[in-house]
Design a protein that fits this description.
The complex is a heterodimer of chains A (163) and B (185). By secondary structure, chain A is an alpha+beta fold. Helices cover 53% and strands 28% of the residues of chain A. Classes of the chains: A alpha+beta (163), B alpha+beta (185).
Chain lengths: 163, 185
């Protein structure tokens, strides 16, 4: 292999490795969405789901635009508040935010290490959900940046009329 | 020179600690229902969260942390006028109603508006509400037809540990308070 080709291949390899490392670091930094449901009855279903938080914004990007735009339109008035809450909760110390305890059920919503954690324990099942706050903020920002359904429709009509 | 440096350090530390304490204030709600359900609910809300979230809500009733009250007359009672009258009145006991089954006391004491209700008919109930007037002032600091919730939250954050509401009856207890801890107990 000529020296120049080897240099190019080496450069491409370095860029790819760098991109992989940066992607890995991003995924590690954002953490993961954990969902665990354990049935207490014999033969009941146990579900365990771990999704890298970075997959959330990607899923939003891949999902049908029409549905996402409609959802964004519904949520739009609350998105700045959700974004602000996620950001501020990230700055707060870890601890319980809401606890409900009765003889049949225990529910805990807490902030734990950069994630919002929901634990439910009742006679039927135990549920654990953990959502990274960074992901909540990023998704809220993504939805906020989306044109709403009517505006998008209007733009599409204008574009088709201009043709 | 050394004395001056120590004094400066002490002032910086004191102001810094105070500022930190003001930032890390928590509103707590604890409801203990001792009835059939025997349920306990605890809510711990950082006031800084309310400070950040309130200005981000833009609805017809709540905008930039201010809530419109022009249409909400509270059954023909002008709440704003009452609060304004209480704020400017001297410290005193304003209302005392003593009946066979119920005692009601409304007073202004040590910079707080105090409301105490003791009900002895049917299910015995004690309600105590304390609203610091700095919070009332902050609430009324907006326009004529609005209550400034954001300013009130900031005023709450500047207070020391304060119990705002306690309700005790035969089966349940409710307590709402502000302190610098992030847990309710």
């Amino acid at each position: 292999m000529p020296a120049s080709a080897a240099a190019v291949a080496g450069g491409v390899g370095t860029v790819l490795l760098g991109a992989a490392l940066a992607g890995g670091a991003l995924i590690y930094d954002m953490g993961g969405v954990w969902v665990s449901v354990k049935a207490k009855k014999p033969g009941g279903d146990n579900i365990r789901l771990v999704v890298p938080a970075a997959a959330g914004p990607v899923a939003l990007w891949l999902a049908p635009k029409k549905n996402i735009r409609e959802a964004a339109k519904e949520a739009r008035p609350w998105l700045p508040a959700i974004k602000a809450a996620a950001e501020e909760l990230g700055n707060c110390p870890d601890g319980p935010l809401v606890e409900v305890t009765n003889p049949h059920e225990k529910v805990l919503i807490a902030k734990q290490g950069g994630a919002l954690v929901i634990d439910v324990d009742n006679p039927n099942e135990t549920v654990h959900v953990s959502v990274p706050l960074k992901m909540v903020g990023i998704i809220a920002a993504q939805l906020e940046a989306m044109p709403d359904a009517e505006a998008a429709h209007g733009n599409a009509v204008e574009a088709s009329e201009s043709w | 020179m050394m004395k001056k440096a120590l004094l400066t350090a002490a002032v910086v530390l004191t102001v810094g600690t105070w500022a930190l304490a003001a930032e890390n204030r928590w509103l707590h709600v604890k409801v203990e229902d001792g009835g059939e359900k025997a349920e306990i609910v605890r809510v711990n809300l950082p006031l800084s969260l309310a400070e950040k979230v309130l200005p981000a809500i833009h609805t017809k009733e709540l905008n930039e942390g201010r809530v419109k009250v022009s249409e909400a007359k509270f059954k023909d009672v002008d709440l704003r006028a009452i609060l304004e009258a209480l704020r400017t009145a001297p410290e005193n006991e304003f209302v005392t109603v003593e009946s066979e089954h119920q005692n009601v006391r409304v007073a202004k004491s040590a910079g707080n508006l105090l409301v105490k209700v003791r009900n002895e008919k049917g299910k015995a109930e004690n309600v105590e509400v304390t609203v610091p007037f700095t919070v009332v002032d902050a609430l009324l600091s907006g326009g004529k037809d609005e209550l400034d919730l954001l300013a009130a939250v900031r005023a709450l954050g500047a207070l020391g540990d304060t119990v705002l509401v306690t309700v005790n009856d035969e089966h349940s207890k409710v307590r709402i308070w502000v302190d610098s801890r992030n847990t309710a107990d």
